[in-house]
Amino acid sequence: MSFNTLIPKSRAHVTTVIVGAGQAGMSASYYLCQAGVDHVVLERHQRFHAWKEDRWDSFCLVTPNWQCRLPDFPYRGDDPTGFMVKNEIVSYVEGFCDSFDAPLHEGVTVTRVEKVDGIFEVDTDQGLWSADNVIVASGGYDRPITPPFASKLAPGIMQIHSKSYRRPSDIPDGTCLVVGTGQSGVQLMEDLRIARRDVRLAVGPAPRSPRWYRGKDATDWLHQMGYYDITIAQQPDPKSTEAKTNHYMSGRDGGHEIDLRRFAMQGLQMYGSVSDMDGTTIRFLPDLEQNLDDADKSYLGIRETIDHYIAREGIDAPLEPPFEKVWRPDAEITEIDAAVEGITSVLWCIGFRPNYDWLQVDCLDARGRPVHTRGVCDEDGMFFLGLGWLHTWGSGRFLSVAEDAAHVAMTIASQNKPATKRVKSAV
């Protein structure tokens, strides 16, 4: 692996430092290049590392390809309503990066960002930079979440996080308990079942979505209805919206809904949320039925919203049969012995937290979350990109990251700060 690194012998100054070379950071670089703003992009791994290294083999988009809209680089393939698989996604983002000459430095880890006398000091393992502006585009998936009680599980039971899962052969023989029903949890459960592995599922409170409804993908309807244009500021409870788990569905094999009740009818053993572990004992909350009901409630809410839109606009769309709950649990199982049940592994799919330990700037709230308006912080010169609901639903996705990046880049360009008069002394 070769990296394009630059080791500044002095504290080199640029107008803007971008931290992270994923789709958000590279989109910001694209627009800064267009505006003639000098900058660097610092990436601790390779560009688009997460797409290349942090996804499982059968990974595919859950939103259709037409939503891939990086700056001046929309999806141009022959399957706009399909769902790109991992290698196709990598080709797409690499093609975008190759479309312009970004000042990208790979293999550079940012270790500290601090504001001193109105200038940002950006310390890295390759030297020190200074900048008028810093764009944090490192994403929110740094630290895989596992609960504290996971440490009490018997050491003979393998524990693996979704970030480390690549294929069913990563899981030892025996039964695997998948914990969590966000997009990763349900897709990895299905991945294991397709491989004819014995899998069980601890169902959390994640919502679910229709896939194909009344003649269109549900995301097509939502886009047509203007849902993706609604900003976080227009939400009734922005903090609650920001914290919501993504609706689960799949883009695999052309895309399909995931109704866990149907999986149960096919033999999938399900439990409620994991509440504790001790040795080989695993305990669950008695919330399986409630979580299934809540997921269906969100599913039906989306269908109803689409129905109202179709009726209001007088659109000729095919009808769908009414939804029916094809299965419900007879009883809630709240405790099992993993040894008796043959459980040899636990696959954690309960999310991630960002890591901003290196960011020594007053721009985070008490929970450690960035405080901003569409990526622009009150702290002059501090910006964020690529976060979920940074501005709209699509902010953390291919759909709208370019719009947010353009907004941040134009904010920086409009300041028109000189970049060559603030070079400081050698490190």
UniProtKB/TrEMBL annotation:
Keywords: Oxidoreductase. The keyword Transcription regulation does not apply. GO terms for molecular function: flavin adenine dinucleotide binding; monooxygenase activity. The keyword Oxidoreductase applies. InterPro entries: Auxin_biosynth/cation_transpt, CHP04046_FMN-dependent, FAD/NAD-bd_sf. Coiled coil: none annotated. It holds the Pfam family Pyr_redox_3. Gene3D superfamilies: FAD/NAD(P)-binding domain. It comes from the Bacteria. PANTHER family: FLAVIN-BINDING MONOOXYGENASE-LIKE PROTEIN (AFU_ORTHOLOGUE AFUA_4G09220), FLAVIN-CONTAINING MONOOXYGENASE. This is Putative flavoprotein involved in K+ transport. It comes from Jannaschia faecimaris.
